[in-house]
Amino acid sequence: MNARSTFGEAPVRVIDDLRREFETLVGRFTARTDGAAALYPPVDVAEGEDGYELIFDLPGLSSDAIDLELRAEGLHIAGTRPEWSDDAGHTLHRVERTTGPFERTVPLPAGADPEQIEATYRDGVLKVAIAKTAAEEPRKVFVTGGVAAD
Q: Could you tell me if 61 and 79 are in contact, meaning their C-beta atoms sit under 8 angstroms apart?
């Protein structure tokens, strides 16, 4: 004898509905707590021969809404993602997109030239190009001094 035959379909459906609701609720709290994914906006850092490129996903913003600053600790990005507004009276059933204020500081890669940075924003993607500093050639250091003591 199984639960369906003893209690009918309703309890099984209720348990399935509760399980789905629980997974949705837990997902809202745990989806962005796995290390780097918890940081917003997400960034990729790529290295080329002449420099680095930081690529941020910032959908739904205008370039005026993005604040970039070069700080001692790295490149600081801040802004506010507006909340979705609906004039048609829709009811939201799932909310996964991040809204509200955000800020993040990304350390500059070693060898990045803080004097040569350019940023472009297109189609919701911010690209920050940072040139590499000129490679320093090793130089000989001469040692001076007296005669070695015996």
A: yes
Number of neighbours of residue 128 by Cβ within 10 angstroms: 21
**Exposed/middle/buried for residue 43 (C-beta within 10 Å: 0-12, 13-18, 19+):** middle
Q: What is the DSSP letter of 97?
A: S
Tell me the per-residue pLDDT of 44-69, one tens digit each, with 9 for 90 and over. 999 999 999 999 999 889 999 999 99
Q: How many helices (H) and strands (E) does the chain have?
A: 2, 7
Instruction: Show the tokens assigned to 52.
Output: 């680095």
Specify the pairing of strand 125-132 against strand 112-122.
Answer: antiparallel
Nearest residue to 124 via CA among 25, 57, 68:
57
Please tell me the pTM assigned to this model: 0.63
The total number of residues written for the chain in this structure: 150
Which parts of the chain fold into alpha helices (H)?
3-7, 10-30
**67-120 pLDDT tens trace:** 999 999 999 999 998 887 777 788 888 878 778 899 999 999 888 999 999 999
**Kind and range of the H or E run holding 15:** helix 10-30
